[in-house]
Amino acid sequence: MNDTELKNVFIEGQMKLQELSRQRSMVTAQLNTKDRERKIASITNKELVSLGDNVKTYKSVGKMFIESDLSTLTTELTNLVKSSENETKALERAFKKIELDIKDQQTTLKEMLDKRG
């Protein structure tokens, strides 16, 4: 490879590395959001379970509240916790894959520099 081709391949590698870093940041933000969602649902569910059966409960719908059965609310929150945990696992797998791709790309760029030097 001549210098121009090597330079173009190196620039493409750097751009791919930047894109992977952006993806990693997005997945990290999504992980934080899902974890927060799971914690809130879990804490709310724990509080609702401690209430008696005769207590009126309300569900937030947009800007208003609708009376809802306690068992329905706890079921919804339990399902939300489970779905958040599943989505978190999927995001963690995606994060690990991106991390491996970043390491591979860094290794490739380093090898290119070592070959040239």
TrEMBL record:
<feature type="coiled-coil region">
    <location>
        <begin position="81"/>
        <end position="115"/>
    </location>
</feature>
<dbReference type="InterPro" id="IPR009053">
    <property type="entry name" value="Prefoldin"/>
</dbReference>
<dbReference type="GO" id="GO:0005737">
    <property type="term" value="C:cytoplasm"/>
</dbReference>
<dbReference type="InterPro" id="IPR002777">
    <property type="entry name" value="PFD_beta-like"/>
</dbReference>
<keyword id="KW-0175">Coiled coil</keyword>
<comment type="similarity">
    <text>Belongs to the prefoldin subunit beta family.</text>
</comment>
<dbReference type="Pfam" id="PF01920">
    <property type="entry name" value="Prefoldin_2"/>
</dbReference>
<protein>
    <recommendedName>
        <fullName>Prefoldin subunit 1</fullName>
    </recommendedName>
</protein>
<keyword id="KW-0143">Chaperone</keyword>
<dbReference type="GO" id="GO:0044183">
    <property type="term" value="F:protein folding chaperone"/>
</dbReference>
<dbReference type="GO" id="GO:0016272">
    <property type="term" value="C:prefoldin complex"/>
</dbReference>
<dbReference type="GO" id="GO:0051082">
    <property type="term" value="F:unfolded protein binding"/>
</dbReference>
